[in-house]
Amino acid sequence: MARRKASAQAPLTPERLEQAALAYLQRYANSAEGLARVLRRRLAKASREGRAAAAPEDVAAVVAKLLRLGLLNDALFAEGRAGRLARQGRSQRSIAR
Predict the structure, then answer these.
(1) How far apart are CA 51 and CA 41, in angstroms?
(2) Lowest CB count within 10 Å: 16, 62, 85, 88, which one?
(3) What is the spatial distance between Cα 54 and Cα 20, in angstroms, rounded to a whole number?
(4) Which helix (H) or strand (E) holds 20?
(5) Bridge partners for 36 per DSSP
(6) Share of the chain above pLDDT 90, in %
(7) 3-state secondary structure of 35
């Protein structure tokens, strides 16, 4: 699968960071901390490539906005993960960790 060249060279602005967060959440359920980790990695990569126009504070702002809008819900994520682990046959003890 080829990557689009235009987006690979575009600066990572706070708006693009938010778009990346929304695209990520469309594909993967995640916690607020997990999403923040993904966005920080993306920002670090853009910074190494000289394309970072967003600051680390923008990651926290994007996560806070998504939490406020209800698009990111740690309790719902934990509930879903616990259910998935139970269906896989994991013990209550391992799920509680």
Answers:
(1) 13
(2) 88
(3) 13
(4) helix 14-27
(5) none
(6) 60
(7) helix
Cα–Cα nearest to 57, from 15, 4, 12, 14: 14
- Interval 56-65 mean pLDDT: 96
Give the chain's largest Cα–Cα span.
Answer: 48
Give me the mean pLDDT over the 44-56 stretch: 92
- Whole-number pLDDT of residue 9: 77
Sign of the torsion formed by the C-alpha atoms of 19, 72, 34 and 80:
negative
How many whole angstroms separate alpha carbon 76 and alpha carbon 78? 5
Considering only residues 60 and 86, tell me which one the structure prediction assigns the higher pLDDT. Answer: 60
State the amino acid at position 39 in one-letter form. Answer: L
What's the number of CA atoms in the CB half-sphere (13 Å) around residue 51? Answer: 15
Residue 55, phi then psi, degrees to nearest 5? -110, 160
